[in-house]
């Protein structure tokens, strides 16, 4: 491999093999690019597991303005309305773009897209593929396209460990393939590494998604934003498997209801009932369980006998657990599903570090605000990949010079972080639990060991959660249950987060805010 590195000097490097990274690489064609994936393509990508689909205003009764209104309402005052408008307007074209790449979206008998309904959407606007296999079908098509694209140099089983930064600008990527370290000299890097579910004990995400892209950006000096907002999916399959299998919101869109072990429908009196925003449903399920109840998704009446045909993947793992969804209620619980916060980026995906872009779940575009609207995430990844690629292609390349590296950081292991973050940043949070997480995470983050990068990401999330002394969207503080009248995004760098965390450890809690902007 080292003999070929000279041929790659100066090429844009895309870190991440999920939908955002693959689409960015394809959109950059015919410019030669390097795509790094720490595992075989698709093996550890959250996109592969996405069941819900893409949200796009493509129905006859729909309009991007209606999609925007639903997005802003779900975002609880923290969406960037301009960014959200730009992204949802581009969503219908993104569906068409994927179809041209070979994605076999489900169609009605008249040939139009078959559209589903999910929580907090005012219209049926969710475009699916093979029922509950949308992510898998999208990834199949994108992987095939990338493998056949001559301008993409694909480096699988290669993990980015650090970004080389000089004078606040990107100069390269330090990566490892097996035991062999390598340096990719470049002035243009796109981080598209996905989310943070692997930092928690109970998540629907692949265990290998634990915030590596956030750590790369933070150590490079980039500003991160809204890290406290973690979306818990209310209906993960309750069982011993980890990650937890997901029961897509589309099932509730088809009429399934939530009940306890007595058969009582506890969401019936909530506005929107089972199709209320995800944070509302997740808290309701969490409270039922905290009171000693079990919670079940009851699909026996709707979709009933059509369940297996509509949701073949879910039906298969239910049957493996001895459950027939057409006859039996399905046990569920909340689990970490999506991260609304991330690397702060502008309209073109640029971070605050010259030469560094971000795309997909790892970025904070302003679309999701405090609470992602269902199925907006795959759509965001596809839409923003185009704008990121256009900006990367038009950016001044500068001269990339290969550099020697003093030491390669070790592979990360989030095992020590999971219990700390799960306790401190659960569905319901409070000052004491968050501060306890910070005290446990800071010494791990300040080491050079395998826990350092995961702890660093968890620490920044916890500092943001402690600083937000209100309840908004997916961030609910039982000690601060009210929502403040003015919404302010959180934005800070790694050095500011570390300083704030030290205040928590060394001094009285109120003074830690002085270290944040």
From TrEMBL:
Key word Zinc present: no
Xref: Pfam families: FAD_binding_2, Succ_DH_flav_C
EC number(s) on file: 1.4.3.16
Domain Fumarate reductase/succinate dehydrogenase flavoprotein-like C-terminal intervals: 456-482
Major place of residence: cytoplasm
Recorded metabolic or biological pathway in which this protein acts: Cofactor biosynthesis; NAD(+) biosynthesis; iminoaspartate from L-aspartate (oxidase route): step 1/1
GO MF terms, alphabetically ordered: L-aspartate oxidase activity
SUPFAM superfamilies: FAD/NAD(P)-binding domain (SSF51905), Succinate dehydrogenase/fumarate reductase flavoprotein C-terminal domain (SSF46977), Succinate dehydrogenase/fumarate reductase flavoprotein, catalytic domain (SSF56425)
Coiled coil: none
Subcellular location: Cytoplasm
Keyword entries, A-Z: FAD, Flavoprotein, Oxidoreductase, Pyridine nucleotide biosynthesis
Function statement: Catalyzes the oxidation of L-aspartate to iminoaspartate.
Family the UniProt entry places it in: Belongs to the FAD-dependent oxidoreductase 2 family. NadB subfamily.
Protein's name in the database: L-aspartate oxidase
Species for this entry: Bradyrhizobium denitrificans
């Amino acid at each position: 491999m080292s003999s070929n590195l000279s041929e790659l000097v100066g090429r844009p490097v895309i870190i991440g093999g999920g939908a955002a990274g693959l689409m960015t690489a394809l959109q950059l064609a015919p410019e030669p690019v390097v795509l790094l994936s720490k595992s075989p393509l698709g093996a550890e990508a959250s996109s592969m597991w996405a069941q819900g689909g893409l949200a796009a205003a493509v129905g006859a009764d729909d309009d991007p303005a209606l999609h925007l209104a639903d997005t802003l309402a779900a975002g609880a005052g923290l969406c960037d309305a301009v960014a959200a408008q730009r992204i949802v307007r581009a969503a219908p074209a993104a569906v068409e773009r994927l179809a041209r790449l070979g994605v076999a979206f489900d169609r009605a008998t008249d040939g139009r897209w078959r559209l589903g309904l999910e929580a907090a959407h005012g219209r049926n606007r969710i475009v699916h593929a093979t029922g509950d296999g949308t992510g898998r079908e999208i990834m199949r098509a994108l992987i095939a396209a990338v493998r056949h694209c001559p301008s993409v140099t694909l480096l699988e089983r290669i993990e980015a460990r650090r970004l080389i930064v000089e004078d606040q600008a990107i100069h390269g990527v330090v990566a490892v393939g097996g035991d062999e370290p390598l340096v990719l000299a470049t002035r243009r890097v796109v981080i598209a590494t996905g989310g943070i579910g692997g930092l928690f004990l109970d998540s629907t995400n692949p265990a290998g998604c634990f915030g590596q892209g956030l750590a790369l950006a933070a150590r490079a000096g980039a500003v991160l934003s809204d890290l406290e907002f973690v979306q818990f999916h209310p209906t993960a399959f309750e069982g011993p498997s980890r990650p937890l299998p997901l029961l897509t919101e589309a099932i509730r869109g088809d009429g399934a209801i939530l009940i306890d072990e007595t058969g009582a429908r506890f969401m019936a009196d909530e506005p929107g009932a089972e199709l209320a925003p995800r944070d509302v449903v997740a808290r309701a399920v969490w409270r039922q369980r905290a009171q000693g109840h079990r919670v079940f998704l009851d699909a026996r009446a709707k979709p009933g006998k059509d369940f297996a045909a509509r949701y073949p993947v879910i039906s298969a793992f239910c049957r493996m657990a001895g459950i027939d969804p057409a006859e039996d209620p399905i046990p569920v619980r909340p689990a970490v599903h999506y991260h609304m916060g991330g690397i702060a980026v502008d309209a073109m995906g640029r971070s605050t570090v010259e030469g560094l872009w971000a795309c997909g779940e790892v970025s904070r575009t302003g679309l999701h605000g405090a609470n992602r609207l269902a199925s907006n995430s795959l759509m965001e990844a596809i839409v923003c990949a185009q704008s990121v690629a256009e900006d990367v292609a038009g950016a001044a390349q500068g001269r990339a010079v290969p550099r020697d590296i003093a030491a390669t950081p070790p592979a990360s292991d989030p095992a020590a972080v999971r219990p700390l973050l799960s306790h401190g940043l659960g569905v319901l949070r409070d000052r004491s639990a968050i501060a306890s997480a910070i005290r446990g995470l800071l010494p791990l983050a300040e080491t050079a060991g395998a826990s350092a990068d995961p702890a660093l990401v968890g620490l920044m999330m916890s500092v943001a959660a402690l600083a937000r002394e209100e309840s908004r969207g997916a961030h609910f503080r039982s000690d601060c249950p009210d929502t403040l009248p003015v919404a302010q995004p959180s934005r800070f760098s790694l050095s500011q987060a570390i300083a704030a965390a030290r205040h928590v450890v060394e001094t009285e809690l109120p003074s830690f805010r002085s270290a944040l902007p």
